[in-house]
Amino acid sequence: MAGNGKNNQQQDVNQLLKVRRDKLKELQEAGRDPFIETKFDVTHHSADIKDCFEELEGTTVAIAGRIMSKRVMGKASFCHIQDLKGTIQSYVARDAVGEEEYKLFKKMDIGDIVGLKGEVFKTQTGEISIHASEIKLLTKSLQILPEKYHGLTNTDTRYRQRYVDLIMNEEVKDTFVKRSKIISAIRRYLDGQGFMEVETPMLVSNAGGAAARPFETHFNALDEDLKLRISLELYLKRLIVGGLERVYEIGRVFRNEGLDTRHNPEFTLMELYQAYTDYHGMMDLTENLYRYVAQEVLGTTKITYNGIEIDLGKPFERITMVDAVKKYADVDFNEIKDLEAARKAADEKGIEYEPHHKKGDILNLFFEAFVEEHLIQPTFLMDHPVEISPLTKRKPDAPDYVERFEFFINGWEMANAYSELNDPIDQRERFKAQEELLAQGDEEANRTDEDFLNALEIGMPPTGGIGYGIDRLCMLLTDSPAIRDVLLFPTMKSLDK
Q: For residue range 22-75, what is the model confidence (pLDDT) as tens digits?
């Protein structure tokens, strides 16, 4: 019986779809094909009319949007039109629009896109509305929108059909409006600090600058294998060598990795590089940037994510990786002198490590196991082991560690920054160590980039650099639980697979 019910429901849907196509055919045969319409002059959006009602009352406005509800009552009807900024009611009366146009209006469907002109007024119930003098069908909707009160709730369908999700879920549209404002605020801040926005290649012969597995492709014209970039770093540093002292890029990067709530194989990264500063300068910049963006977009530096208040107005905590592991795991790596002692400490704490892992790698495993989840408030996690930082300057007084920080909020890594390595001889040795890891089967290790080494030999000034995960910042400032909620078109498995 359940199967019969489903079949009957599908038959009903098919009949409704047929009715819409029949209506379109009727319009076309009458010389009123809505798909021929090319222009409608819009004067206002719904929210503008509501916000400025006192000055607009009694004046004629023109809006355009999608019919989201319709109530036909004989000679007069009501409908709600949804546009970019919200929804507004319209009163459509036969005497005002004319008998022929009113007949056409009554045949319009939910989802149709219309242009409407009329006078702004307020109904007896106090709802700001437009008394239509003209209503014109601009696009016929041949599909059926989800039922109004339940909306579009299936998350898989929402991500695949984002266009329907944006129509049915106002909070989704708000998220992406905020995302746009976040990126605009970032640009305003950096431009005001004297940074220059640039663009660098996405297709590269050597995908370096991060520990990640690249996507590979082939360029037919040159018969060469290429990769999609995993980072923006090495090209931006070449520009520092060239004398562009402050540069940044906001762009897509691609990493051949899994999908989860914080990872998508293509995502938006911002990297910036500043000559004549170090990782402390990058900390100051990050603190100021986050406060500026939150204040610009949300009007406050106190935000709430998943019910937890995060205060971007207070000074951000700064703690070394060694001190953080000592604080949360009660293991002091200052007292661990060699690899054997590090392995022993790991065994005692149940930390699993690989045969090729060195002391610094094991310190990082301790951090991931014991510390990361505690870094809820803004925290700069500083001074990483050299083994996991192939592009970073060593600390002069502690050469086993480097001048690097990762920025954490809500237990997430939000940014990664260095005092950039500018010694070409040291950099070649670091690349050599990465090549050895590659030979051992590590697909995320960096390959030697000879042109980048040549650039360093030309001479790169002392430089601070940082990479920001823009999607995670958008998640944080929009209180979104998953990265797919802040990507308009997240990566999805094909339906025919």
A: 999 999 999 999 999 779 999 999 999 999 999 999 999 999 999 999 999 889
In the block, tokens 């009160």 appear at: 149
Q: How many residues does the chain have?
A: 497
Q: At 78, is the pLDDT very low, low, confident or very high (cuts 50, 70, 90)?
A: very high
CA distance 93 to 119: 12
Is the pLDDT assigned to residue 197 strictly greater than 50? yes
pLDDT tier for residue 5 given thresholds of 50, 70 and 90: low
β-sheet bridge partners, residue 66: 82, 113
Tally Cβ neighbours within 10 Å of residue 247. 25
Structurally, what CATH architecture does the domain formed by 2-145 represent?
Answer: Beta Barrel (2.40)
Flag whether pLDDT at 371 surpasses 80: yes
| Domain ranges across the chain | 2-145, 168-316+377-485
Q: Quick one: tokens of 19? A: 């009715």
Is CATH 3.30.930.10 what the domain over 168-316+377-485 is classified as, yes or no? yes
Output the 3-class SS for the chain.
Answer: CHHHHHHHHHHHHHHHHHHHHHHHHHHHHCCCCHHHCCCCCCCCCHHHHHHCHHHHCCCEEEEEEEEEEEEEECCEEEEEEEECCEEEEEEEEHHHHCHHHHHHHHCCCCCCEEEEEEEEEECCCCCEEEEEEEEEEEECCCCCCCCCCCCCCCHHHHHHCHHHHHHHCHHHHHHHHHHHHHHHHHHHHHHHCCCEECCCCCEECCCCCCCCCCCEEEECCCCEEEEECCCCHHHHHHHHHCCCCEEEEEEEEECCCCCECCECCEEEEEEEEEECCCHHHHHHHHHHHHHHHHHHHHCCCEEEECCEEEECCCCCEEEEHHHHHHHHHCCCCCCCCCHHHHHHHHHHHCCCCCCCCCHHHHHHHHHHHHCHHHCCCCEEEECCEHHHCCCECEECCEEEEECEEEEEECCEEEEEEEEECCCHHHHHHHHHHHHHHHHCCCCCCCCCCHHHHHHHHHCCCCEEEEEEEHHHHHHHHHCCCCHHHCCCCCCCCCCCC
What are the residues whose beta carbons fall under 8 Å from the beta carbon of 284, sequence distance 6 or more? none
Distance in angstroms (rounded) separating the CA atoms of residues 447 and 433: 10
Question: What is the pLDDT of the chain when averaged over all its residues?
Answer: 94
Spatial neighbors of 403 by CB under 8 A, at least 6 apart, are 278, 279, 383, 392, 393, 394, 395, 418, 419
Name which of 441, 126, 445, 464 is nearest 285 in CA terms: 464
Q: Give the pLDDT score at 3.
A: 57
